[in-house]
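Project channel, design review

CF: Before we commit to the Actinoplanes hulinensis constructs, I'd like one complete example in the thread so the newer folks can see what an input/output pair looks like. Taking TetR/AcrR family transcriptional regulator.
RD: sounds good, go ahead.
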Amino acid sequence: MEKSRRRGRPGHDQDAVLAAAVRLFNTRGYDATSMFDVAESLGITKSTLYHHVSGKEQLLTMAVDRALDGLFEAAEAALREESAATVRLKDLIRRSVLVLADRLEFVTLLLRVRGNTAAEQHALSRRRELDRIVTDLVKQAQAEGGVRADVDAATAARLLFGMVNSLIEWYRPDRGAPESIADTVADLAFDGLRHR
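CF: and here is what came back for TetR/AcrR family transcriptional regulator:
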């Protein structure tokens, strides 16, 4: 075959394949996206695509793990701090916003999984583990008197991350520096909107 007739483009690595797949999963949906769609979006053949990954399920696993790994790193960093639980909780919220801003498409996909595949079930299991970490931190903050004790800790954890996760609906890099948005979310979560 002549070089001019070859379909694949050089230079695509696994990260490029993953990024293309995540964009398609987020716009078309995981079920509606085929490996052919991913290959076509990159201008490569399906056989070239399979050189990088074993299939669509692997792409989904890699994508949600990219989001979850960042969130777990944020949790671990906040938990390592030697400060009051309320300070660590606020730092976790701030760090989570930064992860979301940095890995927006991956977190967006993570928040859309429903448990329909083994990869999705694995992602949901890891999300529940993260929920437990945040709930435990809320309980510690309540015990220290830094957070209202009349609110169920699990509910508070879900509401805090609901605020963080809502950013997938409106955040874009041109809407402000991630650090500024992270500070705003953390401040509002802990101080509210009321003028004091």
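RD: helpful, thanks. Confidence is low (pLDDT under 50) at residues 1-10.
CF: The two ends are 74 Å apart (CA to CA).
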